[in-house]
Write a structure and sequence with these properties.
By secondary structure, the protein is α+β, with helices and mostly antiparallel strands. The chain folds into 2 domains: 4-164, Ribosomal Protein S5, domain 2 (2-Layer Sandwich), CATH 3.30.230; 174-312, 2-Layer Sandwich (Alpha-Beta Plaits). It is 41% helix and 24% strand. It has 9 helices and 11 strands. The chain has helices at residues 72-84, 108-123, 130-145, 151-158, 192-205, 207-230, 233-250, 255-266, 292-301, and strands spanning 4-15, 26-42, 51-55, 60-63, 92-98, 162-164, 171-172, 179-185, 271-275, 282-287, 306-312. Strands 1, 2, 3, 4, 5, 6 and 7 form a 7-stranded mixed beta sheet that branches. Strand 6 and strand 7 form a beta hairpin. The longest helix has 24 residues, at 207-230. The chain binds (3R)-3-hydroxy-3-methyl-5-(phosphonooxy)pentanoic acid (PMV). (3R)-3-hydroxy-3-methyl-5-(phosphonooxy)pentanoic acid is lined by residues 13, 17-18, 20-21, 105, 145, 148-149, 151-152, 192, 196, 276-277.
């Protein structure tokens, strides 16, 4: 049997993170320069059910059986089998390689789950539909993040820009005019589960204040969506920078993220914000295409450990 492979992109959040957990809309974009590839190879001479799971990104090379039941890779495997009504798995080696840095708000956990779920169902002879992949990835996101909104698994599963509202049908956001983003990694890892939990504590302590911030972020996401139709890059940038200020007010930015945002603006970006859970991870800057290189260099001089330039174009994600 030939090896089965499946790949999934990374993602960024253009607008609306954290508020999306409380029902506000948010916009997420797939990033195809980052990706996870799962390869499954049958091992006909090994005993049935013996599954070797190799994931160098987390230093894992282990028999599936010896992992805890709530280990996300074991839980994904079990959930795919359960949803497919399958109880036996042919001996195999599952290798997961990802170029997405872990815990930096770029969707590594969702990307790993989605590529594993797709590869495994294909290996079992019946590739599962996107809706089921998304459901499985959402369950596994709960293991990673506690109370996820579902935005990461959705954008990574469908691999299109999404305007996402928790509990509502998925809205594919059509990109009508190209725009360029520089993504810059602060080099600090941060667990989304922790930043989401911190925001929840603050919200519980002062609901009025935080509900107002969430409502303001919701307005921004709606405006960004409208603006994508109009193609007013200056306004788009302005909206992203205002989103960053509201994320600062939520307490999820850091001095390093603020420095990178300011650096991008000083270097000529039209707007910039942290992207994802915050507390570390990445910022994104909206830039004129011709300035992407100089802004990336400025961000690297400011301490970004890596930058990626990505252009959203009609008909596809980043
Ligand atoms: O996985 P991250 O760090 O991109 O965070 C996802 C966005 C949050 O709104 C912070 C959490 C969520 O589940 O929506």
């Amino acid at each position: 049997m030939p090896a089965i492979t499946s790949s999934s992109p990374g993602k960024i959040i253009l607008c609306g993170e954290h508020a999306v957990v409380y029902g506000a809309p948010a916009i997420a974009l797939p990033v195809f320069q980052l990706n996870t590839k799962t390869t499954i190879l049958a091992q006909p001479s090994a005993p049935e059910g013996k599954v070797r799971m190799i994931a160098p990104c987390i230093g894992l090379d282990s028999d599936l059986e010896s992992l805890a039941d709530n280990h996300p890779l074991k839980a994904t495997t079990a959930l795919v089998m359960q949803k497919m009504g399958v109880t036996r798995l042919q001996a195999c080696e599952i290798r997961i390689n990802t170029t997405i840095p872990i815990a930096t708000g770029l969707g590594s956990s969702a990307s790993v789950t989605v590529s594993l779920a797709r590869a495994l169902s294909a290996f079992l002879g019946n590739p599962i539909p996107d809706e089921l992949v998304n459901q499985i990835a959402f369950e596994i996101e709960k293991l990673h993040h506690g109370t996820p909104s579902g935005i990461d698994n959705t954008v990574v599963t469908y691999q299109v820009p999404v305007y996402f509202v928790k509990g509502e049908p998925i809205e594919h956001l059509k990109i009508r005019h190209p725009f360029t983003l520089v993504i810059a990694d602060s080099g600090a890892a941060s667990l989304t589960a922790e930043t989401v939990a911190r925001v929840r504590e603050r919200w519980l302590a002062d609901k009025e204040r935080y509900d107002t911030i969430f409502a303001n972020i919701a307005d921004l996401s709606r405006e960004v969506k409208e603006n994508l139709e109009k193609n007013d890059l200056n306004q788009h940038g302005e909206l992203l920078s205002r989103n960053h200020e509201l994320l600062q007010a939520l307490g999820v930015s850091t001095p390093m993220l603020d420095d990178l945002v300011n650096c991008a603006l000083q270097a000529g970006a039209l707007g910039a914000k942290l992207s994802g859970g915050g507390g570390g991870g990445n910022i994104i800057a909206l830039v004129h295409h011709t300035q992407a290189d100089s802004i990336s260099r400025a961000l690297e001089q400011q301490g970004a450990v890596r930058t990626i330039t990505t252009t959203l174009a009609p008909g596809r994600g980043a």
